[in-house]
Specification:
CATH superfamily of the largest domain: Vaccinia Virus protein VP39
CATH class of the largest domain: Alpha Beta
Strand order of the largest sheet: 7-6-5-8-9-11-10
Number of strands: 11
Number of domains: 2
Domain Polyketide synthase-like methyltransferase: 140-376
Pfam families: CMAS
Order of helices and strands: HEEEHHEHHHHHEHEHEEHEHHEHHHE
Keywords: Lipid metabolism, Methyltransferase, S-adenosyl-L-methionine, Transferase
GO molecular function: methyltransferase activity
InterPro entries: CFA/CMAS, CMAS, MeTfrase_dom, SAM-dependent_MTases_sf
CATH architecture of the largest domain: 3-Layer(aba) Sandwich
Low-confidence stretches: none
Distance between the termini: 64 Å
Number of helices: 16
């Protein structure tokens, strides 16, 4: 059987993109502007042990599959292809067909595939998981994220706003929801490179503390705080959120941390943040969520190459757990379209700095990022994942929230 026929079995009869294989066979429409090129039998051997997206991703990361054109366009064209819907009998037939290829060309998974050691969501294992993704190269992140160094969903005031304008708008939206005023104390858990911490200090006169499990992030952020002359108000520490100071804060922001917590730890997570707030203090939780129940496991490629141990929950579950921890929920909104725009900006940045990025982190890791950001953009556009901000308040002993009757 020719390679193109096998790929057609995996992708479906109506292959939406052009497929060109090393044996000269072809599939899909000749008029397609984008194409998958199967360069080596090793790519086919990957499909024996991982018949779906994981096998294809392994082959792409390893350079055994190449894409002609934009990766996002290929994924968009293939978005309706049921890669995960191969029946057991179809998987068995595929494995039998490819068995001779697998015996001659089998390869171990790429070295970039990672599963952290230790007990799930222990401090030790969480630190390893975070280091795997974030302690790559600050220079690489500067190229991808841009000057804001904000690695979370931006908020676009207009469709043509720049990525930097949208990241500043995101930080200001969080500040407004938290009602930040001069003299307040803010705790930002999972603070990344300190964007929210520095915004709160510079724009609102807030004494802000950020904590992150990434040593690279903490070092970069603290140096940037010094450079901006914000050392009197802002600080970032290399610290687990569970070890953050327990004194009363006026406000807490959690922007992109909850995805790393784990479902079983959510009650203790929100309870710990509740205890760190003064009565009347607010929590803004900003995180990626699943759009519906029952939930699905994190995509195997994302779980093994990008966010080890990451878990996404529906927003309804997060709201319930926050409520059970003592928070009164005051506001919630879905920003998934904004995250698609954010990822489009990061994808452009990576392509503009592709040669430098490859030289800095290697071709394999650069390919991981190209693939995962394009796939994530599509996921937000197609409502396979969402981004929710949930605002809660710790009421005072008389049940007062301190909110105006309308508006912020």
């Amino acid at each position: 059987m020719q390679v193109a026929e096998i790929i057609s079995d995996v992708l479906g009869e109506d292959v939406p993109v052009r497929v060109v294989a090393y044996d000269g066979s072809k599939a899909g429409p000749d008029r397609s502007d984008v194409a998958l090129r199967i360069l080596t039998p090793r790519a086919m051997a990957r499909l024996v042990t991982a018949p779906g997206t994981l096998g294809l991703a392994r082959a792409y990361v390893s350079g055994e599959i190449e894409v002609d054109g934009d990766v996002y366009e290929v994924l968009d064209a293939m978005a309706d292809v049921a890669l995960h819907d191969l029946s057991g009998s179809e998987r068995l037939r595929l494995a039998r067909t490819l068995l001779p290829v697998w015996l001659r060309h089998r390869q171990p998974p790429p070295d970039l595939e990672y599963r952290p050691p230790g007990r799930l969501h222990s401090k030790f294992r969480d630190s390893k998981a975070i280091a795997h993704h974030y302690d790559v190269s600050n220079r690489f992140y500067e190229w991808v994220l841009g000057p804001s160094m904000a690695y979370t969903c931006a908020v676009f005031p207009t469709a043509d706003a720049t990525l930097e304008e949208a990241q500043a708008a995101k930080h200001e939206l969080v500040a407004q929801k938290l009602a930040l005023e001069p003299g307040m104390r803010l705790l930002d858990v999972g603070c990344g490179w300190g964007g929210m911490v520095m915004h709160a200090a510079a724009e609102h006169g807030v004494k802000a503390l950020g904590v992150t499990l990434s040593r690279n992030q903490a070092d970069w952020a603290q140096a940037e705080i010094e450079r901006r002359g914000l050392a009197g108000l802002a600080e970032v520490r290399h610290l687990d959120y569970r070890d953050a100071p327990e004194s009363e804060f006026d406000a807490i922001s959690s922007i992109g941390l909850t995805e790393h917590i784990g479902k079983d730890n959510l009650p203790s997570y929100f309870a710990s943040l509740y205890e760190r707030l003064r009565p009347g203090g607010r929590l803004l939780n900003h995180c990626i969520t699943q759009p519906r129940t029952p939930t699905r496991k994190l995509d195997a490629f994302i779980a093994r190459y990008v966010f080890p141990d990451g878990q996404l929950e529906p927003v309804g579950h997060l709201v319930s757990v926050m409520n059970d921890a003592g928070f009164e929920i005051r506001h919630e909104e879905n920003l998934r379209e904004h995250y698609a725009l954010t990822l489009a900006g990061w994808c452009r940045n990576l392509e503009e700095h592709w040669e430098e990025a490859v030289a800095e982190v290697g071709i394999g890791r650069a390919r991981v990022w190209r693939l995962y950001m394009a796939a994530s953009r599509l996921g937000f556009e197609r409502d396979n994942i969402q981004l929710h901000q949930v605002l809660g308040v710790r009421l005072d002993d008389r049940g007062r929230a301190g909110f105006p009757l309308r508006g912020w």
